Automatic annotation (TrEMBL):
<dbReference type="GO" id="GO:0000976">
    <property type="term" value="F:transcription cis-regulatory region binding"/>
</dbReference>
<keyword id="KW-0805">Transcription regulation</keyword>
<dbReference type="InterPro" id="IPR001647">
    <property type="entry name" value="HTH_TetR"/>
</dbReference>
<feature type="domain" description="HTH tetR-type">
    <location>
        <begin position="1"/>
        <end position="61"/>
    </location>
</feature>
<dbReference type="InterPro" id="IPR050109">
    <property type="entry name" value="HTH-type_TetR-like_transc_reg"/>
</dbReference>
<dbReference type="GO" id="GO:0003700">
    <property type="term" value="F:DNA-binding transcription factor activity"/>
</dbReference>
<dbReference type="Pfam" id="PF00440">
    <property type="entry name" value="TetR_N"/>
</dbReference>
<keyword id="KW-0238">DNA-binding</keyword>
<dbReference type="InterPro" id="IPR036271">
    <property type="entry name" value="Tet_transcr_reg_TetR-rel_C_sf"/>
</dbReference>
<protein>
    <submittedName>
        <fullName>TetR family transcriptional regulator</fullName>
    </submittedName>
</protein>
<dbReference type="InterPro" id="IPR009057">
    <property type="entry name" value="Homeodomain-like_sf"/>
</dbReference>
<keyword id="KW-0804">Transcription</keyword>
<feature type="DNA-binding region" description="H-T-H motif">
    <location>
        <begin position="24"/>
        <end position="43"/>
    </location>
</feature>
Length: 187
């Protein structure tokens, strides 16, 4: 593992323990065993590091959605929905402790939102809706289905379970199959 990967892994650890708002680049670099200068050799700022943690250290929901959208008919619709739900539950459960502190102040949230821009949380929601549109094109999701609402229901349930699991300091309930079955009945 190279210095960049070690810094990302250390950032994930520190951000999980302290939250994004309280994790400093100095502590992250020390945890990785490097200087802050080395950290800044690889990352422009803490937000850049946050994006790397979210993209590299958490379950790859975005890549899975791109894969499913490119070839939606490869597996049964139920299996695909359960896969998205399972990854959504894992992604939010692992990401919630990292990202929740962004909401600790309006200024931090505003600057974080501005810096994230096109990489914000809406990307995953749009990815699920795009995947469901691909399923509509195959006729596996009814033409009149509101795919944005269906995507919000699926990811919203995953997010809620992650919140509850984080609050109660436990693993999220494995609801992926039940979420897929319930959503499938509505599609």
């Amino acid at each position: 593992m190279g210095s960049r990967e070690e810094i990302v892994a250390a950032a994930a650890k520190v951000m999980r323990e302290q939250g994004y708002a309280h994790a400093t680049t100095k502590v992250i670099a020390q945890t990785a065993g490097y200087s802050e200068a080395m950290l800044y050799k690889h990352f422009r700022d803490k937000t850049d590091l946050f994006l790397s943690v979210m993209g590299e250290e958490l379950p790859s929901l975005g890549a899975t959605l791109a894969e499913l959208t490119a070839d939606p008919g490869r597996a049964p619709l139920r299996a695909n929905l359960a896969r998205v739900a399972r990854l959504g539950l894992a992604f939010y459960a692992e990401g919630f402790p990292i990202a929740v502190s962004v909401f600790s102040s309006r200024e931090l949230l505003r600057s974080h939102r501005e810096r994230l821009g096109e990489h914000g949380p809406h990307v995953l929601l749009g990815g699920v809706a795009t995947y469901l549109r691909a399923e509509q094109a195959l006729g596996r999701v009814e033409a009149g289905t509101d795919v944005e609402a269906a995507a919000a229901l699926l990811l919203g349930a995953c997010f809620q379970q992650a919140f509850l699991a984080t609050f109660h300091e436990r693993e999220p309930a494995d609801l992926a199959d039940r979420l897929a079955d319930t959503l499938l009945a509505a599609l």
